[in-house]
Amino acid sequence: MEILLVIAALGAAIILHELGHGVVAHWLGDETARRAGRLTLNPLRHIDQMGSIILPLFLAVGQWLTLGRVAFLFGWAKPVPVDPFALHIGAYRNPRRLMALVALAGPAVNFLLALAGGYALRAAMASPVAAEALIYFIDINLLLGLFNLIPLPPMDGGRIAVGLLPLPLASLLAQAERLGIALVLLALFVLPLALAQFGIRFDPFGDLIRVVLPVAEQAVLTLTGTPIGSR
Fold first, then answer.
1. Ranges of residues in the chain whose predicted pLDDT is under 70
2. Nearest residue to 10 via CA among 62, 73, 68, 54
């Protein structure tokens, strides 16, 4: 049951995250996502076979068998196509700045979903099963939103940084997007292990899980008036 709850929460979080990108791009005049059929709640239009099914299921089952619980999941949906040069607000056209708004939409959706989950949790405290599902939903949305704000391309935080940094620095950072998700995996998972061999502590993802996520969860429970002991 726990594995199913976590996978369901992750699926909803990543699909709505990508839909958020597409909707904001549409609001800003880009029809690329609409023409690709991505402005829909139909999960089949967003699922990436590896990132949405195989990897999350592998991680969930592996942790359940070894740890007896699911401590962490990672996954992604198919990226929503966006044409930065089609974005505009009236006569204002700035592909770099407006693409940052589109990038911000995904994490923003996850944070709004976490808040919605907090309000639902407050109303569902009498049902242990519903409360457990909602806690997973809150934590996964918070983790996905925070993780995507890491300022490395192709994460949303990297694209936001490209939109906000001075042009010379933005150009250098944008070039790193060619490395894809490999850059993120190297920086967050391989580099910490390598530096640990020299006694250097560098664990941004671990700190995100252990330090930032509990603070964010506490903020959601406080803002929604949910009893703090619900976690």
1. 1-3, 67, 69-73, 228-231
2. 73
Q: For residue 114, which amino acid is it?
A: A
**Residue reference for tokens 């592998």:** 58
Q: Is 177 a catalytic site residue?
A: no
At 175-224, the pLDDT tens digits run 888 887 788 888 888 899 899 999 999 988 888 888 999 999 999 999 99
Per-residue H/E/C for the chain: CHHHHHHHHHHHHHHHHHHHHHHHHHHCCCCHHHHCCCCCCCHHHCCCHHHHHHHHHHHHHHHHHHHCCCCCCCCCCCCCCCCHHHCCECCECCHHHHHHHHHHHHHHHHHHHHHHHHHHHHHCCCCHHHHHHHHHHHHHHHHHHHHHCCCCCCCHHHHHHHHHCCHHHHHHHHHHHHHCHHHHHHHHHHHHHHHHCCCCCCCHHHHHHHHHHHHHHHHHHHHCCCCHHHC
- Which structural domain, as residue segments, surrounds residue 178? 2-230
Q: Which amino acid is at 139?
A: D
Total domain count, the chain:
1
Check if the beta carbon of residue 28 is closer than 8 Å to that of residue 101: yes
Q: Which residue in the list 2, 18, 31, 217 is annotated as catalytic?
A: 18
